[in-house]
Amino acid sequence: MGNGDSMGIDIDSDEDAVASRLDEMQIETQGFAHALSGSSQSQNSTKSISGSFIEPIVENDRTYINDTYYLPNDDAEATSDSMCHQVYIAALSGRLTFHRMKPDVSRMLDVGANPGDWAIAVAERYPQAEVVATDLGPCELADLPPNLVFQVDDAREEWTYAEPFDYIHIRGMAGAFSDWKFIYDQACKHLGEDGILEVVDRGPVHHNTSVPDSYLDIYNAACQQAAELSGVSLGAEHLRREVIEEVGLRIFRSATVEIPVGQWHPDRRQKSAGRMALVGSLERLEAQSMRLLTKYLDWSAEDVKDLCEKVTEEILLQDTKPSMTCTFVIARKFPES
What is the DSSP string of 256-299? Predict the structure, then answer.
């Protein structure tokens, strides 16, 4: 697991040509995303699992779930999330979890589940288990596995589950919480005996060769600065041992995997994962930066879009071998004395 060479899933066996234009990547990805989701997920469904109605907020042509969370909640972001889901699976050699799940697992919790790719997949993989998936907004899904329940919930507030969980999964939530100690404390309280907490996040896209006056570097620095002004961090501080273990958890396994962004890697499997990472990363550029930069750094929407276009062109050159990291952390409670 120490490097990308361990990836073992072949997402698409017919990916020999490097995508040369962003619009081609978007067109191909839309069809691919539907093929991945199959009958388990429908972005066109209007049914809310919670039965509640949440008024969306539209800013600069993006739809948000509230007036604080920096990421939008729209179709473009769902596509990005689905692509990233496949990248995580590739990094795990086709598995859904970094820790080997017990066959008799009975209760699982997915925190920040929207649009539900992981929750649906794990519910189908373990039909005997009850899977609870939570997010700030309702997931519009159809044909759900019978053992999967979606709930509109804010993880920043006290968790009120009556029964403990065997497995709690938190993925891709960098920038979502200002108080990770509270999140880990709640997870610790709601883990059963021998329960497992898995926390997963990816780092920003970065170049592997020096690029003078890099637009990507400018983009990453601006987003991090804006996030800090908003009271959160886009970094990996929440994955540090001292942060997780402060509340009574113990890390017993972790790994960071380097993923190519694009099709520059000679290995076929990494090339396949790199294609998904490229599409997801390009879709995420504007989504991650628009609210942060306009709200906290007073950029205009046009300036944000202009920077995203320049970053896209820089990444698509591929000569700097852009990549990103995926970090996986597994923790459980300290044994009670």
Answer: EEEEESSS-SSSHHHHHHHHHHHHHHHHHHHHHHHHHHHHHS--
